[in-house]
Design a protein that fits this description.
Rossmann fold, UDP-N-acetylmuramoyl-L-alanine:D-glutamate ligase, Protein-Tyrosine Phosphatase, Chain A, 3 domains, ten-stranded mixed β-sheet, six-stranded mixed β-sheet, about 25% strand, globular
Length: about 475
């Protein structure tokens, strides 16, 4: 399908508002194809990005969304049999594929794919690595990257970029590919080099247990050529196991003395993080970045290590980290009203919640910290990690839970019961309350908020517009 606009096709993406699907849509449009899309419900930031690129999004799913009949349909992994667009594709034998397969065929083949994978930190690390390459391109345009990121990188203002150079940086997702391809997306990408951040049990809807998750990552490691490079976190036994049989060079990063890339003297001052980065026994660089949290220093170190391994100069890496702006929905300040700070963060797992709250503690040490959580991801909607979730939420001064998103889709014996989480938190003296949804939460907490409070809203979805509803309520006189 590659080629000039004269060979343009009509490509329809069913499930276009997923972060990877929206990014793929943008890349395909840059190739000159006519792009349409559909989804169940569109919400920022991807809905905004699609609107800015002029790609029409039809809601909800319908057979008529495929009129006129497209040349190709990309079926998102959220769609299954019974979806009207899936059924029409199969009935009429309209050519179809998955996001991951099309990304490989159209954009990775013939290039040098660099993939960032892991349970946590993928999006930020992919954004960091892309920005390092972009800064390096100021001196040598050959470094300018193409990329696909599972979020909007603020330095670029987009989640995708297409250049004629060889490097393509991709976020590698371990979630399944499509209803007709239940393997992980990242097994389609065949990386030349890989960052592996963390390996934990996640995606409880498709992985039976931690062993199944580790098997997926081991298969990814097995795809790296002998000439390649793996940069792997050294603080996880699971990561160690997954890279133990790699046939390429493996460089570890973290805080231990055994790490090839070692973080030392990490310190935080508000949003500014500073640290020494040692390579072996020698000080390699002193680095700083305007993002809080130990986890972000690790993300930046991983990106720096891979970039250095590919030949990018230390000065470009240092400049890129110092000028990195973050990713939308990652510790993003959404509003500051009457001394109350409202922050949005993409929360999908208890470990991610823990690191977010730890980072906010370092930035706002004197503030009363609220954690407002919607259990929405396929892991958080289940009780399998309930104990870890309770421990993570204890880091907040006040906890507010919404009801489980689409709880009817989770079997009763597997489902998280928020009232039990609230009871467990209250039992250890933590102030926690449960409300059914965004409107009830806004009604309940807006009168309680006071100047100096920091409210972390945690969800991997739209959370019924709470990011706009809560600031609007705080602005009202008498609140």
């Amino acid at each position: 399908m590659s080629g000039p606009a004269a060979q343009a096709k009509h490509i329809h993406l069913s499930g276009i508002c997923g972060t990877a699907m929206a990014s793929l849509a943008g890349l395909l449009q840059l190739q000159g194809h006519r792009i349409t899309g559909s989804d169940k419900a569109a919400y920022p930031p991807m809905s905004d990005q699609l609107r800015e690129t002029g790609i029409p999004v039809m809601e909800p799913y319908s057979e008529s969304n495929l009129d006129p009949r497209p040349d190709l349909v990309v079926i998102g992994n959220a769609l299954s049999r019974g979806n009207p667009e899936v059924e029409r594709v199969l009935d009429e034998r309209i050519p179809f594929t998955s996001m991951a397969a099309l990304l490989r065929d159209e954009f990775l083949r013939g290039r040098e794919p660099l993939v960032v994978a892991g349970t946590h930190g993928k999006t930020t690390t992919t954004s960091l690595l892309s920005w390092i390459y972009q800064v390096a391109a100021h001196e040598d345009p050959a470094w300018e990257p193409s990329f696909l990121i599972g979020g909007v990188a603020e330095n670029f203002g987009t989640s995708f970029q297409l250049r004629p150079t060889r490097t393509f940086i991709a976020e590698g997702d371990e979630y399944d590919t499509a209803f007709f391809d239940k393997g992980p997306k990242f097994l389609h990408y065949f990386p030349d080099a890989l960052i592996l951040t963390h390996v934990e049990f996640d995606h409880a809807d498709i992985y039976a247990d931690l062993e199944a998750v580790k098997t997926a990552f081991k298969r990814l490691v097995n795809l790296i050529p002998r000439r390649g490079l793996i940069v792997a976190y050294d603080g996880s036994a699971n990561v160690t196991e997954c890279v133990s049989r790699a046939l390429c060079r493996v460089e570890r990063y973290g805080f231990s003395d055994a790490a090839e890339w070692r973080i030392a003297k990490l310190r935080h001052a508000g949003n500014l993080s500073c640290w020494e980065l040692w390579r072996g026994s020698a000080l390699w660089a002193e680095l700083e970045m305007r993002m809080a949290g130990e986890h972000n220093a690790l993300n930046a170190t991983a990106a720096a290590a891979l970039a250095a391994g590919q030949g990018i100069a230390k000065e470009a890496i240092r400049e890129a980290l110092a000028t990195f702006k973050s990713v939308k929905r990652r510790l993003e300040v959404r509003a500051e009203i009457r001394g109350i700070t409202i922050i949005e963060d993409f929360a999908h797992h208890p470990t991610a919640i823990r690191e977010t709250l730890r980072a906010l503690r370092s930035v706002y040490p004197q503030s009363r910290l609220w954690a407002v959580l919607e259990p929405r991801s396929n892991t958080l909607r289940r009780k399998v990690l309930e104990g870890d979730l309770i421990e993570s939420l204890r880091l907040a001064d006040r906890v507010v839970l919404a009801g489980v998103y689409q709880q009817e889709r989770i079997p009763e014996n597997e489902r998280l019961h928020p009232e039990e989480v609230i009871a467990a938190l209250n039992a250890v003296g933590a102030a926690a309350e449960l409300h059914p949804g965004a409107d009830a939460i806004v009604d309940a907490i807006a009168p309680q908020l006071a100047p100096g409070d920091v409210v972390a809203i945690l969800s991997n979805g739209g959370f019924d517009g709470i990011y706009e509803k809560l600031p609007a309520r705080i602005k009202q006189p008498g609140t």
